[in-house]
Design goal:
With 207 residues, this protein is α/β, with parallel strands linked by helices. The chain has one domain: Rossmann fold, CATH 3.40.50. It has helices at 16-28, 48-53, 70-84, 108-121, 170-196, 199-206; strands at 4-10, 34-40, 56-64, 67-68, 94-101, 125-126, 154-157. Strands 1, 2, 3, 4, 5, 6 and 7 form a seven-stranded mixed sheet that branches. Strand 5 (94-101), helix 4 (108-121) and strand 6 form a beta-alpha-beta unit. The chain binds flavin mononucleotide. Flavin mononucleotide binds at residues 12-18, 62-66, 100-103, 106-107, 158, 160. Residues 12-18, 62-66, 100-103, 106-107, 158, 160 line the site of flavin mononucleotide. InterPro entries: Flavodoxin/NO_synth, Flavodoxin_CS, Flavoprotein-like_sf, FMN_Rdtase-like_dom. This is NADPH-dependent FMN reductase. Keywords: Flavoprotein, FMN.
Amino acid sequence: MIRQSIAIVYHSGYGHTGRQAEAVKAGVEQVDGVEALLLTVDKVDRHWDDLNSAQAIIFGSPTYMGAVSAPFKAFQEATSNAVLAKGYLWKDKIAAGFTTSGSRSGDKLSTLMQMVVFAAQHGMHWVGLDLPPANCSSTGSEEDMNRLGFWLGAGAQANTDEGPETAPPASDLATARYLGRRVALTTLQFVRGRRAIPFEHAIAAYD
Ligand SMILES: Cc1cc2nc3c(=O)[nH]c(=O)nc-3n(C[C@H](O)[C@H](O)[C@H](O)COP(=O)(O)O)c2cc1C
């Protein structure tokens, strides 16, 4: 059986988003029929072909000043020449995203929204989280998956006086694993669905 490739491209200045990225990869690997490629943005130049042939790309960045980090932004801008100008090479791939910050909110939503716009510019299909509301009632807790309440992607919070050995906490890493697994399952459905109904056929039926 051909295994579908799912790439995870991320930047992490101090290692916290790196822990989240590893958790996303572990979630992807829970699903049969896919393989995960974990890549930091500084290595992308040697891996454009891998990204172009992947069925899904999951983006990860810390939230710095309420936005993606500068190295992640540089990667985003590099795709203009390396991907878009070469023929819209990421069109119809699955996309998703994750981010870590120091505060519980920390304006992480802004980072995820930047990633959504980026994916849309590439003609990709964004996959969010489908977890129910958590940590928002008298019976909820910090141990809940999606304790920070994001749906656009996976959010994590790392205390700024803790290293990546202990932060982000287990609940945020479980949320990241969940996202990885969901993206892998969605990718398989999408790839097999596209095989059953090729795009040209769908357009003809619409006409
Ligand atoms: C330049 C800079 C800007 C930051 N801006 C934010 C921010 O806007 N919101 C926030 O909650 N934390 C902010 N932080 C804290 C980081 O998001 C936090 O330390 C995170 O865990 C870093 O992830 P990393 O280890 O993957 O780099 C900032 C940190 C730095 C270095």
